[in-house]
UniProtKB/TrEMBL annotation:
InterPro entries: Peptidase_M15C (IPR039561), Zn_M74/Hedgehog-like (IPR009045). Keywords: Signal. Residues 86-148 form the Peptidase M15C domain. Residues 1-17 form the signal peptide. GO terms for molecular function: peptidase activity. It holds the Pfam family Peptidase_M15_4. This is Peptidase M15C domain-containing protein. The keyword Metal-binding does not apply. It comes from the Eukaryota.
Amino acid sequence: MRAFCILAIACVAFSDALPSVKDGCPIVNHQPSNFQGKTAQVNANFVSTIDRISSYATAAGVELYITSSFRKDTNIHGSTVVPPASKSNHMVGHAIDMNVVYSGGFCNSVCLSGQLPAPVAAFINKIRQDPALRWGGDFSEPDVVHIDDGLNINNPDEWDREYIQAQKYC
C-alpha cells in the first residue's frame, strides 16, 4: 500500500494495483517498486504473476524496465469483437516486454540474445524454472524481451473470454 497526503492533513491509502477507470475492464496498472519504464498494464488475473516475476528480479539483484504490456487490438472494426487467429498474450494483459537493469548496466534485446551477465542470467533462470511462466528467448522464434504465462496455449477458451472483455471494455 502507498499513501497520498495533502499538506500532511489527510492521507488516503491506495494499492499499487490501481483499478481501471472503465467498468468491466479487467486491465489494471501494476508497478512493483523494482519496475521502471512504462507502467505495467496487466489483467487483474495476472497481478500475482507480476508480483512473482518481481520477486525473481529482486532475488537476482536486478530491476525490470518495462517496454510493453497490455495492447489494444488495432484490427477491431465496429462493435463486434471476435478473437483473432493469432492469440498474443499482450492482448489479454498476460504478458510483458522488458529489458533488465543490473549493477553493470542495461540488458536490452541485443544483450538478452547473447551471453547473459550473471545477475541477468540468474533472473532468466528463475523465470525458466517457474512452470507457469515462459521466457520468449525459449520460443521457436525467440522474443528475448518477452515473459508471459502461456494462457493462449494452456487455456485458449479463457484467453478468448479475456480477450473479448479486455478489448471491449478497456
